[in-house]
């Protein structure tokens, strides 16, 4: 996917506020399909983004965001395991509700700058997302699905990293208002 492909997703990569709320405006039905939520060892990028020590565990939640049953976004959130008994404890009971319910209704939560990133076609994150996408949808992840955005949310000194990987079906769609 070249510059033209990123440009067609540029508005989505930079849109502030709740991605879930923006997606919900594209159709009649918005759903969150939870792929997994569990405790895993830190990944280097997540550890660096969250300013965590070299060793430890993180609670990871991976989902597919769907509009009218069409998969639009694969997303991964990660938070230090200790934060789930403190500032981010509500993540444990989130279920299939969007993470936005926690992130945008609390004035104590602050978001970092959005950082667009092109994933390596054969990198670990892309391969992992592709396996989950296939299992959840029955279809291979589109080869053009390489652009993501990352941000970190801070609540009372505890950080949560969110990475969202956009399907090419969003090209040409306008993200609209929050």
TrEMBL record:
State the function annotated in the UniProt record: Removes the pyruvyl group from chorismate, with concomitant aromatization of the ring, to provide 4-hydroxybenzoate (4HB) for the ubiquinone pathway.
Q: Which residues participate in substrate binding? A: 61, 99, 164
GO terms (molecular function) for this protein are: lyase activity
Name of the top EC class for this enzyme: lyase
Species per Swiss-Prot/TrEMBL record: Pelomonas nitida
Q: Which family does it belong to?
A: Belongs to the UbiC family.
The answer to whether UniProt assigns keyword Lyase to this entry is yes
* Subcellular location(s) per record: Cytoplasm
Pathway per the UniProt entry: Cofactor biosynthesis; ubiquinone biosynthesis
Quote the Gene3D superfamilies the UniProt record gives.
Chorismate lyase-like
Protein's recorded name:
Probable chorismate pyruvate-lyase
| Keywords noted in UniProt | Cytoplasm, Lyase, Pyruvate, Ubiquinone biosynthesis
| Keyword Chloroplast among UniProt keywords | no
E.C. number: 4.1.3.40
Substrates-to-products reaction catalysed: chorismate = 4-hydroxybenzoate + pyruvate
**Which domain of life, per UniProt?**
Bacteria
Q: Which PANTHER family match?
A: CHORISMATE PYRUVATE-LYASE (PTHR38683)
Q: What is its main location?
A: cytoplasm
């Amino acid at each position: 996917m070249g510059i033209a492909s990123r440009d067609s997703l540029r508005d989505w990569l930079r849109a502030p506020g709740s991605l879930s709320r923006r997606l919900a405006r594209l159709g009649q039905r918005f759903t969150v399909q939870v792929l997994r939520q569990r405790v895993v060892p830190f990944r280097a990028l997540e550890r660096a983004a969250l300013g965590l020590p070299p060793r430890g565990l993180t609670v990871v939640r991976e989902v597919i965001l769907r509009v009218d049953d069409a998969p639009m976004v694969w997303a991964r959130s990660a938070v230090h395991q200790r934060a789930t008994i403190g500032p981010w404890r509500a993540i444990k009971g989130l279920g299939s509700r969007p993470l936005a319910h926690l992130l945008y209704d609390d004035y104590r939560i602050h978001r970092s700058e959005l950082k667009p990133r092109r994933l390596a076609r054969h990198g670990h994150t892309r391969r992992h997302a592709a396996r989950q996408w296939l299992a959840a949808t029955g279809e291979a992840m589109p080869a053009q699905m390489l652009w993501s955005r990352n941000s970190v949310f801070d609540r009372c000194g505890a950080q949560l990293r969110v990475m969202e990987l956009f399907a090419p079906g969003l090209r040409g769609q306008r993200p609209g208002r929050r």
